[in-house]
Amino acid sequence: MVDDSSAVAAESTRVAARSSLVDSLRACGISGIRIDKQALKRRILIPEYIRLGIRDAILSKDPDAAAERHRRGGGEEKCEPAEAPVVVFVNSKSGGRHGPALKERLQELMGEEQVFDLSLVKPPEFVEFGLGFLEKMASFGDQCAKVTREKLRIMVAGGDGTAGWILGSLAELCVQHREPVPPTGIIPLGTGNDLSRSFGWGGSFPFAWRAAIKKYLSKAISAPVYRLDSWQVVVTMPDVGKVELPYCLQPVKGQTFDQDLDVKEKIPQTLTCYEGVFYNYFSIGMDAQVAYGFHHLRNKRPYLAQGPISNKLIYSTYSCTQGWFCTPCMKSPSLRGLKNILRMHIKKANCSEWEQVQMPSDVRAIVALNLHNYGSGRNPWGKLKPKYLEKKGFVEAHVDDGVIEIFGLKQGWHASFVLVDLITAKHIAQAFHYSVRYHFKSTSKQLVMDVVRQRFSLFKKLK
User: Is the pTM here over 0.85, yes or no?
Assistant: First the structure.
């Protein structure tokens, strides 16, 4: 990891909002043809007994027993650790569903046991059992396993959701004091790939992908590590029984409404809490409704999701059916904006008190943005001039500054102009660290969402 105070880390946050045509041509993979396959394999291939041990530990879900068996088997003294050990997670359901062919190609370039299909091996299993095996072998004095654990890097072949899943699982290493946390790179297979764009890995899967994969693995060896803020979401709501949760939220116990926030409505006696983490952006309102509907449509009819272009067309068509562009007059006025049902409080820098933010009456979507990229490479926050920043009390936005940008979208037409860079979104606030609270109110139910800053690291692809 790169220290916060280093110049390299500071430069990491100044990332282009959208991949240029030149970057797209570079990503075609032609330069990867010149990379020698055998030389690449020697640099990233983990010794066989360690690969097999990781596999056995995950299958048996017992890293201690697997380590004991391989320690008794011997053979490790003759092995040298890889110069840059890399493991890859492949999501066969991402983007254009290149996963199966990509998995075969990766297995040609590295050990078969170093490529994990996410439909078979879940990231938490790798963290608990695979890395647990390496740590156990290191405790036995195995230097090869120790160096492998320390130098290990992870590549994720998937979209932003897949990358977030991996990062969230790796974050448990910090909680359990099992550092170092392996840095993560991305092979973009998703639709938007905003996280991948922000760290220089590209916005789409390359056309000449078989050669490009060699280039991705080669860059993973030497790419520098940069910081990324992550934000924890805590949802507190009345207990309504069984709730259908997205995979990114998990139920937790012991959370309550914060006493330092003035909540005028009566608080229910029985509460339910959920936690999750996001890295790109956190959206409330029509934007989130469209994304949620598209997600369910894609799962219900997977044959429609044949690639990023078709996904974007379906997404755009679906947006037109949700009242995002036109809300009928006979419907409730509350559907035209969030002001009637949402209050937002933030904490600013060096301030311990919550401050309520005035909600614009015409805003129908609120987005808390962590990256420079949103909606497939757009920058709705914009590059603001120093005078404007000073007037608003804002600071320049970076991905590792502990500050999150909050903006609003009025309706589909406004969002469309924002996404083609004709205008910027409606700037609402910037918040710091333990910073944002959304309070939803109605006649009978209340729901509170807290957004809390954490920190993570990725490594950036070199040009």
Answer: no
Query: Token pair of 457, please?
Result: 């690291």
258-292 pLDDT, tens per residue? 555 555 555 556 778 888 888 888 888 777 777 77
Q: What is the pLDDT of residues 204-252, one digit of tens each?
A: 877 777 788 888 998 889 888 888 888 888 887 777 677 776 666 778 7
Q: Where are the alpha helices (DSSP H) in 153-208?
A: 160-170, 172-175, 194-198
21 SS3 class: helix
Diameter over CA atoms, the chain: 77
Please, what sign has the CA dihedral across residues 285, 320, 417, 16? positive
Q: Which residues are CB-contacts of 156 (< 8 A; sequence separation ≥ 6)?
A: 88, 89, 91, 162, 163, 166, 184, 185, 186, 187
CA atoms of 439 and 450, how far apart (whole Å): 9
Residue with the bigger pLDDT between 434 and 201: it is 201
Q: Name the more confident of 27 and 142.
A: 142
As a dihedral over the C-alpha atoms of residue 76, residue 81, residue 82, residue 86, rounded to 10 degrees, the angle is: 80
**How far apart, in whole angstroms, are the C-alpha atoms of residue 372 and residue 282?**
13
CA distance 392 to 354: 18
Closest to 377 measured CA to CA, from 419, 415, 412, 408: 419
For residues 66 and 251, the answer to whether their CB atoms sit within 8 Å is no
Both tokens assigned to 193: 């790939």
Nearest-angstrom CA–CA distance, 400 and 387: 23
Please answer whether residues 366 and 408 qualify as being in contact, where contact means their C-beta atoms are separated by less than 8 angstroms.
yes
Q: Is 117 exposed, middle or buried (0-12, 13-18, 19+ CB in 10 A)?
A: middle
Which of 7-11, 266-270, 295-299 is predicted with the least confidence, judged by mean pLDDT? 7-11
Which residues have C-beta within 8 Å of that of residue 7, sequence separation ≥ 6? none
Q: Which of 48-52, 288-292, 459-463 has the lowest mean pLDDT?
A: 459-463
Q: Which residue has the higher pLDDT, 75 or 360?
A: 360
Query: DSSP for 122-152?
Result: -HHHIIIIIHHHHHHHHHTT-HHHHHHHHH-
* Contact of 427 with 394, CB cutoff 8 Å: yes
Going by pLDDT thresholds of 50, 70 and 90, the confidence category of residue 22 is: very low
Cα 202 to chain centroid distance, Å, stands at 15
Distant-in-sequence contacts of 161-165, Cβ < 8 A, 24+ apart: 161/190, 161/248, 162/89, 162/91, 162/94, 162/118, 162/189, 162/190, 163/195, 163/196, 163/279, 164/195, 164/248, 164/277, 164/278, 164/279, 164/280, 165/118, 165/123, 165/247, 165/248
Identify whether the C-beta of residue 318 lies closer than 8 Å to the C-beta of residue 297: yes
Checking if the pLDDT of 127 tops 60, the result is yes
Q: Does residue 44 contact residue 214 with C-beta atoms inside 8 Å?
A: no
